[in-house]
Write a structure and sequence with these properties.
Elements: H1 13-25, E1 29-33, H2 39-55, E2 59-63, E3 94-98, H3 110-115, E4 118-123, E5 134-137, H4 144-154, H5 161-174, H6 185-195, H7 201-208, H8 216-225, E6 228-230, E7 239-244, H9 246-252, H10 262-266, E8 274-280, E9 286-292, H11 298-304, E10 308-309, E11 313-318, H12 322-335
Parallel strand pairs: 1-2, 1-3, 3-4, 4-5, 7-8
Antiparallel strand pairs: 6-7, 8-9, 9-11, 10-11
Helix pairs in contact: 2-4, 2-5, 4-5, 5-6, 8-9
The protein binds adenosine monophosphate and manganese (II) ion (MN) (2 copies).
EC number: 3.1.3.7
GO molecular function: 3'(2'),5'-bisphosphate nucleotidase activity
Enzyme class: hydrolase
Length: 342
């Protein structure tokens, strides 16, 4: 792909035209985002659902089981537009997916996507498997929210405050609050357009990052207290890893979905290029978050472990033992080419 990062040219003109025509012609449109949705997945889908409402187009919007909106996203406008995935059409005519790099990321709605006549895949993962019939995939986009804004614009819908809030949450979460390398001038231009609808950035930041119940502090303390630094991993660039167990959370009655910020503390470690947090969910599986500072592609390692993501932020689900996964990570990170050694 030769187009500059974040440019609309990454998506073919005919793909835009097909997507707009399909949505215009559809009697009803089915929306889905990836399981355990983050701000980008759910914010983009809810913004789009509200755009369809403005158009007067009937729709169904959902995400695969478990159908629980993460606590930190419960301030998003439009949650009332969601439908239980059990009530989702089995064979959608036109389906649009948000922030899902592969069909299996749709969880229980993957079966519906398989049966859909048309699937418009809206995403920004370079690893996207192009599982649809029309692909609005821009690996240069900082967030799926940026691609979603372009589609809303092409449908001729003016952004409302509530649509823009979903898109803004997607943009700030996927850029780490405008800190990651994907934060181009276009990202700030988009943020400017979104803010112009009346969004209060300080309120968004408080909801997304700057609040937690008191019980978060002992859980964070336990996780940080057992963090392990392995300086030799990744060709000497270093890895830091830790766990957050169900027992940690039970002691403070802390729900699983409040653990997203733990990786942001762990990844500060100067001595480690790679940071990994194993989070035990309520079913006993480990949801694993990985981050790199740009010199190692953790996305490749996570794909090898059955997950996916971006070069600097990726994850996978582990049903086995943490020590085995750490061992696999050591091996994979030894093999993965270091991008630059600045
Ligand atoms: P997280 O650490 O949960 O913030 O996830 C970082 C990124 O990794 C996400 O934006 C996804 O692109 C990807 N990711 C996380 N978990 C998985 C998974 N189980 N399977 C595939 N991709 C994942
Ligand atoms: Mn996502
Ligand atoms: Mn995203």
């Amino acid at each position: 792909m030769n187009s500059p990062p974040g440019s609309t040219a990454a998506i073919a003109a005919d793909a835009w035209e097909r997507a707009v025509a399909s949505i215009d012609e559809a009697e009803t449109v089915c929306l889905a985002c990836h399981v355990c949705p983050d701000g980008d997945a759910l914010g983009s889908m809810l913004a789009f659902a509200q755009a369809l409402r403005v158009l007067g187009k009937p729709f169904t919007a959902s995400f695969g089981d478990v159908f629980v909106v993460p606590r930190i996203l419960r301030f998003l406008p439009g949650l009332d537009l969601l439908t239980d995935p059990g009530d989702y059409p089995a064979e959608p005519d036109v389906m649009v997916t948000f922030d899902a790099a592969s069909r299996d990321r749709l969880g229980s709605l993957a079966a519906n996507a398989r049966k859909a006549r048309e699937v418009i895949v809206l995403d920004h993962h370079a690893s996207n498997t192009r599982f649809g019939t029309t692909h609005l995939v821009d690996p240069g986009a900082a967030a799926t929210a940026a691609v979603t804004e372009r589609l809303i614009d092409r449908l001729g819908v003016a952004l409302t405050h509530d649509m823009a809030l979903g898109l803004y949450v997607g943009l700030v979460t996927d850029t780490g609050s405008f800190k990651y390398a994907a934060t181009t001038p276009e990202v700030h231009a988009l943020a400017g357009r979104l803010l112009a609808t009346g969004i209060r950035p300080e309120l968004v930041a408080r909801e997304v990052w700057d609040r937690a119940p008191f019980g978060y502090l002992p859980v964070l303390s336990a996780a940080l207290g057992r963090a392990t630094l392995e300086p030799d991993v990744a060709g000497g660039l270093g890895m830091v890893w830790t766990t957050v167990t169900r027992a940690d959370r039970a002691a403070s009655a802390l729900p699983y979905d409040l653990l997203e910020g733990v990786i942001d503390v762990v990844r500060r470690t100067d001595e480690a290029e790679v940071a990994v947090v194993f989070k035990e969910d309520d079913e006993g599986a480990w949801q694993v978050s990985t981050r790199s500072k740009g010199r190692v592609d953790v996305g490749m390692a996570c794909v090898a472990l059955g997950g996916g993501g971006h070069p600097t932020a990726a994850g996978f689900t582990l049903h086995g033992e943490v020590r085995h996964a750490v061992e696999r990570l050591r091996e994979l990170l030894a093999e993965i080419e270091v991008v630059t050694r600045t």
